[in-house]
Amino acid sequence: MTQYAAPGQPGSVVAYRPRYDHFIGGDHVAPVTGEYVENVTPVTGEVFTEVARGTDADRARALHAASGAAQAWGNTTARERATVLGEVADRIEEHATELAVAETWDNGKPVREALVADVPMLIELFRQYAAVVRAEVGEVEQLGRDTCDYRSFQPLGVVHERVSWTFPLLNACRVLAPALAAGNAVVLEPALQTPASVHVLVDVIADLLPPGVVNVVTGSDDHPATSGRCPNIFFSDVTARRDGFLDKALDGFAMFAANQGEIATAPSRALLQTAVYEEFLHLATERTQALELGDPLDTDTMVGAVVSLAQRDRVLAYVERGKAEGARLVTGGEADGHYVQPTIFEGDHRSSVFTDDVLGPVVSVTRFDDRDDALKIANEAAAQLGAGIWCRDIALAHTVGQDLRAERVWVNNYHPYPATTAALAEYRRVKHLVVSYSDRGQGYF
């Protein structure tokens, strides 16, 4: 066990500034209105810093600074940008513990998650995108005997992105890494609930980037986060043996409580096959009750603080609604300050306790009879970012996975945020240069 000192206390690895201005054009810039907002840590419920209140005028200044920097940054070679991204990754790695504690203090997540998942993924994102842009080349298509289409990549120019509070640093870097790799300048707007950790990140890496390439405007309106109420399907063969697979499946069930359930792909709908429903629910309840809820700065803590009191109240209102609708509360359902117990409901899959978004440590359990029944229930939600399947029969898992209406399906694992290079295409355009090298013929017909 490691117990990290709270920011502001002797021995803390993080030193927050008393006040954060906007970061625009490479400098800290006071807000146009002169207004600041108190930033509260969910760990203790206390104010630990304040941030500039952003307005349209502040955004305009940031966008202007980004526009001025975008052309020069976009004109750098892919190799030059890759080198800088590699340096950013190295700097984040040097400050890994500082950033992990900063994220925990701002968001309430257990520091163990930030240390073993969030911050390592920041490093991997920058290194991965650096490797991709360094290695890739354009394409040439022969359109005719003496005509070619040369295809290359160009940046969009300026990327303006709002960063949700669910994973402040990871969500910020899931924009920064591909956007910078593609040659864009960026304006980030962290959510009002969690602006400070992004400022800590900028303080760590700002000197590696030209002024204006990364800008931060803080303290704007709350950024809503959405959940897909992702289904997590457990087939009867998971309990065939008391072995490591069953243990992993129980961990997969308990994933609903990771990051306090504040994950867009949280597996907050659990479907258990009727043949093993009671047995598996009993084991899953024991696993859930064993989760350590407590001080997020303690590495033994598994479930930390909900990001804000407003979000806590939303979760508790959902719990009361579930009770009123007749869903059975299996465990949890209570809170102490920002801390909400991991909660299990069981009930009808058509009830609101099963279908509504909550973004809290709450899972709703229902039963299914067979493959077709599982698919029918799982696919009732119109939009699902993810889904999980737990099954020893890999052939069955493959077919079910193909038929689930989800963007990403995990089979016998549930790791919500894999690094990906797919986002690179969102931050650049393809340039076509169609060239004829013949000195004969006509220009059109």
TrEMBL record:
InterPro entries xrefs: Ald_DH/histidinol_DH (IPR016161), Ald_DH_C (IPR016163), Ald_DH_N (IPR016162), Aldehyde_DH_dom (IPR015590)
SUPFAM superfamilies: ALDH-like
Domain Aldehyde dehydrogenase: 35-221, 246-419
Keywords noted in UniProt: Oxidoreductase
GO molecular function: oxidoreductase activity, acting on the aldehyde or oxo group of donors, NAD or NADP as acceptor
UniProt keyword annotation of Disulfide bond present: no
Similarity section: Belongs to the aldehyde dehydrogenase family.
Name this polypeptide is given: Aldehyde dehydrogenase
Naturally occurring in which organism (per UniProt): Lentzea jiangxiensis
